[in-house]
Amino acid sequence: MRGILYYALWRYKDIPLDKAPVVYFDLEAEGSGVLASTLLEFLTLLALDKEPNLGKYEAGGLGIGSSPRNQELRDWLEHYYGLHAAEDPNEIVQRARSQYPALPLLYPAAERSHPGHH
Length: 118
Prior knowledge:
- The protein is of the alpha+beta class.
- 31% of the residues lie in helices and 13% in strands.
- The chain has a three-stranded antiparallel β-sheet.
């Protein structure tokens, strides 16, 4: 069973909330960190209907099962923002972590000790 994840907007250097990065906190102490550069990017990750493992999406994902409301989210994203589910979720995560590197202590210990190995 996967741990419980919480997501939040990070008020990084007084960035307005619509530009704030999204971070995750794993209550099972498996790691926390930046997940997306903006709320809209985060919504494209949510539209995958997959749960990240330590901030990474595995091929095929760790599917949490198809949620009944996922299609509603996808339709809403497309209608209001012209967005779709992320095609390369790990690229979004890595770009966000490169853009907001001031949160290194929240990443899993293994990633801190081997930053180039993802």
